[in-house]
Each structure stands twice: as structure tokens, then as C-alpha cells.
Amino acid sequence: MHILHTAKFLKSAAGLRDMPPDHGCEVAFAGRSNAGKSSALNALATHKGLARVSKTPGRTQLLNVFVLDDERRLVDLPGYGYAKVPIGVRDQWRGMVDGYLRSREALKGLVLIMDSRHPLKDFDRQMLDFAAAIAKPCHVLLTKADKLSRNEATRTLNEVRKELGADTEGAAPVTVQLFSSTAKTGLDEARKVVSDWLELPSAGGRPAAPPTPAHGRS
Ligand code: GDP
After folding, report:
1. CA of 38 to the centre of ligand 1 (A)
2. Residue 149 to residues 95, 152, 182, 189: CA-CA distances in angstroms?
3. How many angstroms separate the alpha carbon of residue 105 from the centre of ligand 1?
4. What's the pTM?
5. What's the rounded Cα separation, in Å, for the pair 69 and 206?
6. What is the number of the ligand 1 atom nearest to the C-alpha of 180?
7. Superfamily designation of domain 3-207
8. Which residue among 33, 38, 39 is best mutated to probe the pocket of ligand 1, counting the most ligand atoms within 8 A of its Cβ?
9. How far apart are CA 74 and CA 64, in angstroms?
10. How far apart are CA 8 and CA 189, in angstroms?
11. Is the pLDDT score of 83 beyond 70?
12. What's the number of CA atoms in the CB half-sphere (13 Å) around residue 167?
């Protein structure tokens, strides 16, 4: 079983102070509303209702935390939509997301979900700037790729890679792939990136857990 399958909703945090303790490894997910972020999270975790909580009114401007185990978490960052967002709301969003990204030591990387038909909008560029500012890797999922022909999808992938200066070797801080939650394409590639980021460091990492003694009950 893939570790992402163990994801469970922990809480919606109103800000950094409300987040679980800053230890272990965390991967954050961001995307404009309707880009397909909840569907991508659900597909990666093979858990249909997992990210539904992020859609609950009132929780859409919160940091939604999912735990995999004691040391690993996924964090669903709030996005915003197509419509012009009032400046106050955008400033509040920026303050919270930027604050989280800048100060969170457990954060190992950012997955940025873009609709492959409309990539690199202002929101996406802002997130890429945030990731670059903190020198943390960013992996772009160009989702809804099932809505494009094979040629269109390849062209979009190449254009976005070129624009972001991403190379296919994975050495660049920004990597890009095609993805579809509906057609279930790109899942293995995305899971590999996320699980590599979530790996605890081997040097100084936790020793292997001793076998758990069987307890009498049940
Ligand atoms: P979010 O607002 O970013 O969390 O977006 P959702 O995951 O709720 O998806 C927004 C809409 O796009 C929904 O109607 C989804 O069914 C649809 N959608 C999401 N991912 C895909 C995909 O890979 N392919 C297609 N065809 N539709 C998708």
C-alpha cells in the first residue's frame, strides 16, 4: 500500500499558530479554485472524500492538514478563484500562505496544480515566486490532461517546462508533469515526487522501530 493511502484529515488551521508542531515532513498543495486540486489530492490518496473538507464553506481560507503518520503530513493551501478577489481577501491569503511557506521547516516541497488548459495564471506565478523565494522544490501538475488531445497535452507540457526553465532530469527546482484525476494518468509520477519529499532524512533520522510487542487484548 502506498503511504499516501493512509492520509486522514487532521484539522483546518486558521494560521501558522494553529498548525501541528513543526517537525517531520510536510508537502503542501496549492492551486486556483477549480483547477482540480481536491480531485488530485483524492486521486493521489485513492480516497474519494479526502479533500472534500477543503470545500466546506468557511474552511476554504484555511490550511487543511492531512496526516499520513506521526511524522508526515499533506497540507492543502487555500486558493482563490477566477473572479476578481477583493484586495483585502487577497492580502489576507498572501499573508497566511506566504507566512506558512516561509517559516515552516517541515515543508519539503510544493505541489502546484494548474488546469492544463489554462496554465500559469497570476495565482500560479505568485505561488512559483513564493516557492523560489524559499528555495524549496515545486512540482507542477498540469491536470485535466484528459481534456486535451495528446498533441495539445505534449505541447502544453513542453511550453510550461520551457517557460519555467524546468528540465526533465528533475535537477531543476521546478518540475512539471501531465496529470488527470479522471483518467488516472500521471499518478505514479506524482506519488513518487511526493513520497521522495516525505522521506525522513536517513542521517540522524529515526532508528527503525522495534517490533511492537503483542498486547494481550483482542
Ligand atoms: P479544486 O477547486 O481545485 O479543488 O477543484 P476540484 O477538484 O473540485 O475540480 C473542479 C472541477 O474540475 C470538478 O468539476 C472536477 O470534477 C473537475 N476535474 C478535476 N480534475 C479533473 C480531471 O483530471 N479531468 C477532468 N475532466 N475534470 C476534472
Report:
1. 7
2. 38, 5, 15, 20
3. 30
4. 0.88
5. 13
6. 23
7. P-loop containing nucleotide triphosphate hydrolases (3.40.50.300)
8. 39
9. 8
10. 22
11. no
12. 4
Would you tell me how many other CB atoms lie within 10 Å of the CB of residue 205?
Answer: 10
- Residue 19 burial by CB count (10 A; 0-12/13-18/19+): exposed, middle or buried? buried
Taking the CA atoms of 6, 127, 185 and 106 in sequence, report the sign of the dihedral they define.
negative
Atom index in ligand 1 nearest the CA of residue 181 equals 23
The confidence score (pLDDT) of residue 201 equals 41
Report residue 131 as a C-alpha cell: 516557492
How far apart are the CA of 50 and the centre of ligand 1, in A?
A: 14
Nearest C-alpha to atom 28 of ligand 1 is from which residue? Answer: 144
pLDDT tens digits for 133-174? 898 999 999 999 999 999 999 999 999 999 998 554 544 479
Beta bridge partners, 175, equal: 139
Quickly list DSSP for 141-157: EEE-GGGS-HHHHHHHH
Question: Which amino acid is present at 2?
Answer: H
Measuring from atom 15 of ligand 1, which residue has the nearest CA?
36
pLDDT in the model for residue 157: 97
Instruction: Report the alpha-carbon distance of residue 95 to residue 207 in Å, rounded.
Output: 38
| Grid cell in block for residue 45 | 490518496
